[in-house]
From TrEMBL:
<dbReference type="Pfam" id="PF00400">
    <property type="entry name" value="WD40"/>
</dbReference>
<dbReference type="InterPro" id="IPR036322">
    <property type="entry name" value="WD40_repeat_dom_sf"/>
</dbReference>
<dbReference type="InterPro" id="IPR015943">
    <property type="entry name" value="WD40/YVTN_repeat-like_dom_sf"/>
</dbReference>
<dbReference type="InterPro" id="IPR004083">
    <property type="entry name" value="Raptor"/>
</dbReference>
<dbReference type="InterPro" id="IPR001680">
    <property type="entry name" value="WD40_rpt"/>
</dbReference>
<protein>
    <submittedName>
        <fullName>Uncharacterized protein</fullName>
    </submittedName>
</protein>
C-alpha cells in the first residue's frame, strides 16, 4: 500500500468491531482511511492542517481521532471523517496557549488526551474540550 505521496507521520487502527480498518496521515495534512482487505486505494480521504500535520492519535474505545499541527492546533474527527472540533492558539491574556504539537496520546479508557509540544510543555485535554471549536 502507498496511500501518500509524502512521509507517513502516523497510523493506527480505527476503533470498533472491524479490525481491518486503519488511518494514516502525512505532513501534507491528508488523512487516508484504509481497509486492509482492499489495498488498491483508501475508502475515505480527509484534508486537515494543510502542510503542517505532525502527529495523530486514535482512541481505542471512543470514536475519536485527533491530529496535531506545527501551527499550534489540534483537530478532532470522527471515524467517518467529520470534524468535531479544534483546539488552537489564542493570543490573549486569558487565551489558551498551545505550542507546536509534536506528540499526541489518548488515555486507553478515559476521554483524556495528552499533547506534547516542541516548547517542552505537555498539555491535557478532557471530554468536551476536544469537541469545541
Amino acid at each position: 500500500m502507498k496511500p501518500h505521496a509524502e512521509t507517513v507521520v502516523g497510523l493506527d487502527f480505527l476503533p470498533g468491531p472491524d479490525h481491518f480498518k486503519m488511518i494514516s496521515a502525512s505532513p501534507a495534512g491528508d488523512l487516508k482511511f484504509l481497509d486492509l482487505r482492499n489495498n488498491s486505494r483508501p475508502y475515505l480521504e480527509v484534508y486537515t492542517n494543510k502542510r503542517h500535520l505532525t502527529s495523530i492519535a486514535v482512541h481505542r474505545h471512543a470514536p475519536l481521532i485527533v491530529t496535531g499541527s506545527s501551527k499550534q492546533s489540534i483537530e478532532t474527527f470522527s471515524p467517518s471523517g467529520a470534524q468535531l472540533g479544534m483546539v488552537h492558539y489564542r493570543n490573549s491574556f486569558l487565551g489558551h496557549r498551545i505550542g507546536p504539537i509534536s506528540a499526541l496520546h489518548f488515555h486507553p479508557y478515559s476521554i483524556l488526551l495528552a499533547a506534547g509540544a516542541t516548547d517542552s510543555v505537555v498539555s491535557f485535554y478532557a471530554g468536551e474540550s476536544l469537541h469545541s471549536t
